[in-house]
Amino acid sequence: MDRRALLALVTAAACAFGLTIVGVAALAVEAGHARDASVLRGFTGLYASSVESEIAIVARLVDPLPYTVMGLLCIAVAVARRRTSTAVATAVVLVGSVASAQALKALLGQPRYAVWLPGDSMQNWWPSGHATAAMTLALSAVIVAPPTWRAVTGLVACGGTVTVAYSTLALVWHYPSDVVAGFLLAGLWVSVALAVLASAEVAAPRLAPPPLLGLLVTLGAGGALIAAAVVGAASERVAIDTVERARVVVAALAIAAVALALLVVTAIGASEPGE
């Protein structure tokens, strides 16, 4: 099997496994849900009425209209680069990922309770459609980008995706598990698409890290640490104990790390003939 296809299939399997584990822990295990709610409470420290509109604008950057516009832009880039197969695969991923997120929410919908939530409960929006959309756009942008721009595109996309995810948590639209599940669902779709593309290539490309991949890894990791520190500092506004605050920081770091890992693997796996 081509190494590019193998990497994509391994990534897809890891995303599917992770999605299952996160879903069971958050939806079927009481202790898992309690931890989810506790971490979410820490994220609410990011919210402030003075910046409510700004946070909401960021969170809505992946609403249907802007999502469609940015998705079409990704497809247009692939077409302009004469990567017709990539353009078709990107279109399928952009539609399929968000459609599957909506289907899962409809299938698994149930209230999830936490005593500090308004009304004591939040409807189960697992996985997060916003996180799925943000991660899908980020990964699609990396796939269609020229090799020399792939790492830089991934770095910008990582920052944008994590910012959208944190915004939805600050606004209490989702639990942290919803966000991680959305990332993994998007990663699953994109990885399967890359495996299909690799299998269909007449001249199979070698698996080659794009230029400046180290920049993506280094700055992305640094950004993840800073983001987690910001969330930890903001959680000081919330009445939680030291252990819970530490869990919030770990969760914030984990969310950013999952986004970065998916973007790095995709940047490597998106190798094209001629690279």
Pick out its properties.
about 280 residues, mainly alpha, two-stranded antiparallel ribbon, 2 strands, single chain, globular, 10 helices
- Please report the distance between the alpha carbons of the first and last residues: 19 Å
Portion in strands: under 5%
Spatial order of the strands in the main sheet?
A: 1-2
The ordered H/E elements are: HHHHHEEHHHHH
Rg from alpha-carbon coordinates: 18 Å
Largest sheet: 2 strands, antiparallel
**Overall pLDDT metric:** 89
Tell how many strands the DSSP assignment holds: 2
**Shape designation:** globular
Q: Would you kindly provide a written description of the structure presented here, covering whatever features stand out?
A:
The chain has helices at residues 3-27, 30-43, 52-59, 64-80, 84-108, 129-144, 147-170, 176-200, 213-234, 242-269, and strands at 111-113, 121-123. The protein is mainly α. It has one domain. It has a two-stranded antiparallel sheet. Helix 4 (64-80) packs antiparallel against helix 5, helix 6 runs parallel beside helix 8 and helix 6 packs parallel to helix 10. The longest helix has 28 residues, at 242-269. The protein is globular.
